[in-house]
Recover the amino acids of this structure.
């Protein structure tokens, strides 16, 4: 997918700057966004354009440009917890049996509930009600 998207960008004449972060927005007096400032291994650069599309996921560019935004629940301010992913090594498939879905036809509910119970028995109460685990069959030798 990464290669395909890059090819499509290339075909469309898009100039891609990898590992480059938008760090500031420059506005004209009429509150129009004129240029973005970036930082990368190439140093600090500015890109000016008529139109910008903010694809930062968190609206970084819009926020830097002074746009208003809402964050969290209107009453409590709480936000959805970040998804956390972890890699657990040193377990055999047999030891982890029952904690992951080993059969496409089998429902997810049981392994998820077992995993949650195991986490709770260790004193951790995950905010995500249905944590899940996947088995990786690639064997890495030490
Ligand atoms: C663990 C996990 C599992 C998920 N599972 C699902 C799922 O199963 N189904 C589903 O529909 N959604 C899922 N989501 C949500 C989904 O990934 C997001 O909603 C989606 O990726 C948002 O796309 P986006 O293009 O808006 O932002 P993103 O994919 O977050 O892309 C933003 C890009 O901007 C870059 N960036 C950020 N700040 C700057 C900056 N200042 N300057 C330059 N670049 C910047 C980032 O590096 C990133 O490459 C999941 C998310 C997580 C974390």
């Amino acid at each position: 997918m990464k290669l395909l998207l890059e090819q499509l960008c290339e075909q469309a004449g898009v100039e891609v700057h990898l590992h480059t972060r938008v760090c500031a927005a420059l506005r004209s007096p009429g509150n129009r966004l004129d240029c973005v400032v970036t930082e990368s291994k190439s140093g600090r650069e500015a890109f000016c354009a008529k139109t910008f599309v903010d694809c930062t996921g968190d609206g970084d560019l819009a926020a830097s440009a002074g746009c208003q935004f809402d964050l969290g629940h209107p009453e409590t301010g709480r936000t959805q917890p970040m998804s956390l992913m972890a890699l657990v090594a040193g377990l055999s498939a047999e030891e982890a049996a029952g904690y992951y879905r080993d059969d496409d036809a089998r429902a997810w509910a049981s392994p998820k509930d077992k995993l949650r119970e195991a986490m709770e028995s260790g004193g951790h109460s995950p905010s995500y009600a249905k944590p899940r685990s996947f088995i990786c069959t690639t064997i890495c030798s030490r």
Remarks:
- The pocket of flavin-adenine dinucleotide is lined by residues 21-22, 55-57, 60, 83, 85 (CB under 6 Å).
- The chain has two domains: 2-64, 84-142.
- The helical segments are 2-11, 60-64, 109-121.
